[in-house]
Structure formats: structure tokens, C-alpha cells
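Q: Got a minute? One more chain.
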Amino acid sequence: MDELLNWLKPQHNGLKTYRTFHQKALQLAASDRAHAASYQLLASMVGRFIDHYEERPLSADVADGALTRLIGLVEKAATSQKGSPADQLVVLNEIAACELG
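A: Always. Here it is, folded:
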């Protein structure tokens, strides 16, 4: 998760970032089976965001807010991986319930 977070932090807030994030999260879900749920949920959330804005204009406010929320969730997921299963479940539920924009 740290690898994904380190990649994400300096990125621009455009749809290309979300598309690349989606691909990276799915690749990590396949290679890091111990945390596959986190990666799959993040990829799913970002996929919904991409689908919603694929043919629509993405305002700077929405894009900035979405990127801030995404970074926050990835940070929480990275921290929770070092915690208890209960801590991990709390973060998984938060990711599952989140909409980026």
C-alpha cells in the first residue's frame, strides 16, 4: 500500500491519474493477496468515479476534493495494514462506503 500511496501523492487530479490508480490497485490486488480486499475496494471506488466523469466535465473543486479523499483513504489503508484485523475492517468498511465525487 505504501508503494501505491507514494505514487499517488504527487499526481495531478485529472482522470488519467484515476485510470492509472485503478490499474495499479488491481495489479497489487493480484500480487498482494494478504491485502487484496483493500486494493479491490479502492479500485472499485475509483472505477465508479471514472465511470461517472468519463463523458462529463470534471471541475477543479470536485477533482481536488476527490484526490484529497483518495489520498486520505490510501493513507488509512496503509496504516491499518499494520494494525489488528478489527482496525483493517473499519477501514475496509469506510472505503466500501465512500464515493469520491
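A: Helices lie at 2-8, 15-31, 36-53, 60-80, 85-97.
Q: Perfect, thanks.
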